[in-house]
Amino acid sequence: MPERPLLFFPRPARVSVQQRRPDLRGINFPSPLRQSSRLTPKFADLERAFEAKLLRLQNNPTGIVPEQVLVLETIGRIDDFYKTIRRIHGLEWMGEFDLEDIAPDEDFYLEEDIEAGLPGRVYLILHNQEGLAQFQSLWETFQRNPEHPQFSRNRTKFRDLFNQLRDLHPWGPEDRLRETGLLEDWQERVAAGQEVMRVEIELWAQNRSWARTRVESWVSNLVGQEGGRILGRCDAAEAIAYHALLAELPIQAVQRILQDSTVELARCEQVMFFRPPGQVLFTVPEGEPESVPAPTQGIERPEGEPIAALLDGLPLENHEWLTGRLIVDDPDGWGDQYPANSRQHGTAMASLILHAELDAPATALSRPLYVRPVLKPDPQNRNWENIPPSSLTVDLIHRAVLRMLERDGYDPPAAPGVRIINLSLGDQARPFDRYPSPWARLLDYLAVKYNILFIVSAGNHPNRIELSLPRSEAGALLADSERLQREVLRTVRDENRLRRLLSPAEAINALTVGALNADSSPLSPLPPGGVDPLAGIALPSLYSAQGLGFRRAVKPDIFFPGGRLLYREAYRTDRIVLEPIESVKPPGQKVATPGNSPGDVSASRHMRGTSNAAALVTRLACQVNDVLEELRLDPEERAPQDEDLAILIRTLLVHGSSWGDSAATLAGYLGLRRGDEEFARICGFGSPEAARILACTEQRVTLLGWGTIQEGHAFGYDLPLPSSLNGLGGFRRLITTLSWFSPIHPRHHRYRRAHVWLSRYSGRRREEDALSRLGLHRIGTEHNLARRGTVQHEIYEGEKVTTYGEDEALTFQVNCRSDAGQLERPVHYGLAITLEVEERTGLPIYDEIRTRIRPRIAPPITP
């Protein structure tokens, strides 16, 4: 137990919820007459398309009922439209997503700024013949009289729809292939001379199980007609609106799908997307590893049940740094087909989690690490590890977590005590695009169901850096480290669309980790031709994926050292181009690795990536768990329960994060304002500092709150103001962090069911902000940006002289409202608040606050 441990808030008081003001902006819409002239031809096209489909299927022996997905694009948003759709027989709600910055035209524009981009929304509705007839009937009524009584009560939203409708069309072959990456994957396989390829066929996740079964049979039949076969399936429609088949098809069949929209499989209405299957791929750099034997004395063996799990490749269990520290669960017997020299990534991640970097090894974790392999050696190349070719990623990860935390058939849960799961994986074929991917939705769903924390890597983009400077300036540029940093950082910033988060990093309930350009390795001098563009400064790495996340929330959440990457100048180009150097030598983070010779169990190499950063954060999360477990032993404290620990760990990892001094350098180079969207996209909430997370000091006090909260409820937490600070000036800082696991609505444009937010007052006086009481101002993330995800992390500083009453306290209020449909059950949340002053002041604020909080702890509740 540290001398000054973290403190727990007393039980919070129930208070009235804070009200939020709606955002109102005036949009000009066309008249009903203009809408009629614009849209009548589109309704006619829709009817003809459905009649053509009816003719194609009328003699089909399978009994498939003609269905079609209708795409409705509006200017402006219509909230809760899905409730209206559910009341129309023959229409089924498939989902919606928001659009931003739609170009205005003569019909639609913002009244206060006719040149500004417009907000919009896309609605996806599955209809049959009866549903289409009702939809067209409503349209015809609107044309005759928009104020018709038929649009009263339960159908008012249809009138809003027709007023705001910009476009409508059936979901077609082009929609099924747009920006899925299938074309690029096919081109690569053709170039490699492959004759077959795997395709993920994502189906519309219909609400009825019998309909999904029928659709699977129909699509499987079409795959067979193209000479293919079904390798796997995943039906998670009810949990995350995902239903998919994994197919193996001849390369020529995929070409027909891409190029001929009349192919039956290409125009199959039951198909939402054709995609490449999950491409989680790790390649081992060439090079000779070195030997770093593990200490044989003075290291305690782990005890107890694992609280952390690693879903990755199969590690080398008998490596000297890992032996006796892993619980490997291999229910499918993959180990028999997993050669020792192929066990690269899992070995490295386990090494980092258990020991940190081997160039500066730390005390090993006190508990064993549970490992479930989800990667296998690639059949074509043993130096590659990836998702097995017969598995859908979502299905594989789902089964792995269920086996860990629930029964698997007649077997008990494999690791029921796990509350932290490391996923240092990313789908290279699925960069984040507007809406959370199925893999991200799965993590969000499981986080809420089991109260577990997923720690996910942001993804790597070790791309060439093509500067906009002629090659003739290369010598001068490489000799000027400051100018090189500035040019490289600007180039990477401008390529943000090519460096997006990789699925599942956009998951709102996960802790997403980016990589800092930092490690503990020695490097002097640089290798021949090597260039360190960031000159060893701990800025976000050039290879680390950039945010933002869903609805422009802060992502990655935090950054942690991921290893320095060197570059070399590429020749035969007109401009200056830097390409990454992949090497097992320094710089980078030293990790355990299989040796090149049989029986070598002490080998190590240097590597780098956001995977490393996520593994090291997982290690820190385990240390935070140990601190919380120790605090729970104090009989005088109101202690969190097991189900509260995961969200508290997440809260503390973000709470201890800040941007540091290097952020000013980055902001200056890029001309950014610290705290705005552009800055957060590159830097997140900053990098956590372990010392600030695990303990307090005499001049720094951190208090924790936790619990569950329902829609329309609020809880108040009082932070006593230390008397020694009253009437004094000098530096002081206040940090507040609130995080929660939100249930999801996978078919709703907002997705996040629960919005929980923190407000602050001077005592119970809502008209007076707490910041004025301490003379503080915001230096962290902007107010609205900080509230978009499921973490609200804010930092305030000040130096003004302030005065207050002897027993005064600041009130921080946790509020909750529904954000996407009904919030059916309470939400778990964690709260951390830190107040600190400079050490040189000697002010005993920790002891003062602790003394005032201790007597107010509520007595235990007796049954």
Explain the layout of strands and helices.
Layout (H helix, E strand, L loop, with lengths): L6 E2 L4 E3 L11 E2 L3 H26 L10 E8 L5 H5 L5 E12 L6 E2 L7 E10 L1 H16 L11 H9 E6 L2 H5 L4 H10 L4 E8 L5 H17 L3 E8 H4 L1 E9 H9 L11 E5 L5 E3 L6 E2 L16 E5 L13 E3 L16 H11 L13 E5 L2 E2 L6 E3 L6 H13 L14 E4 L14 H13 L2 E5 L7 E6 L3 H6 L1 H14 L16 E6 L13 E2 L26 E4 L5 E3 L5 E6 L8 E4 L10 E5 L2 H22 L10 H14 L1 E2 L3 H9 L6 H7 L3 E2 L1 H5 L5 E10 L4 E7 L11 E9 L13 E9 L7 H5 L2 E2 L12 E8 L10 E10 L8 E11 L7 H9 L10
Parallel strand pairs: 1-32, 15-17, 15-20, 16-17, 20-21, 21-23, 23-25
Antiparallel strand pairs: 2-33, 3-6, 4-7, 4-8, 5-7, 9-11, 9-12, 10-11, 13-19, 14-29, 18-19, 22-27, 24-26, 26-27, 28-29, 30-31, 32-39, 33-38, 34-37, 34-39, 35-38, 36-37
Helix pairs in contact: 1-3, 6-9, 10-15, 11-12, 15-16
